[in-house]
Amino acid sequence: MSLNTGIPAEDRKTISEGLSKVLADSYTLYLKTHNFHWNVSGPQFSALHNLFEEQYKELAAAVDEIAERIRALGHTAPGSYKAFSQLKSIEEAEDVPDSKTMLRQLAEDNETVARTARSVFPATESATDEATADLLTQRLAAHEKAAWMLRSHLE
C-alpha cells in the first residue's frame, strides 16, 4: 500500500535521514548516560546516580518515539550498533572518567543532540511536516534542559 499523507516521497526520505542521525546520537547518548549511571562514584554519587538515571530513562522513551516517526514516514529506522556508529556524532566513552568529566561530556553530548535535531528543521518546514517538527521541538527542549542541569553541577 502506498503512503500518501501529503509529504512528498523525497521530502520523507530527507527527513527520515535526518531523524536517523538524531536517533543514532540519542541512542549513543542513552548508552553513555546509562554507563555513567552505573559507574559514577565520588562525593556526589547519589545525586549524579539519580540524575543520570532520570536522563537515560527519558532517552529510552525518546529513541522509541524517533524510530516510530521514521517508520511513519515510510522508512526503516536504523537499529544496530554498526548503523548508529556510522550516523552518530557523539563520541563514546572508552573508560570510566571522574564525575566532573562525566558531567562535562554529557552536557556537551546533549548540546550535540540538540544541534543534530535542529539541523532537521529546514526539511520539516519545507515539507510542512508539523508532526516531525513537534517531535524535534520536544527533543530540543529535553536536551537543552538536560545540558543545563548537567552544567549546573559543574558550577
UniProtKB/TrEMBL annotation:
Belongs to the Dps family. It holds the Pfam family Ferritin. This is Dps family protein. InterPro entries: DPS_DNA-bd (IPR002177), DPS_DNA-bd_CS (IPR023188), Ferritin-like (IPR012347), Ferritin-like_SF (IPR009078), Ferritin_DPS_dom (IPR008331). It comes from the Bacteria. Residues 18-155 form the Ferritin/DPS domain.
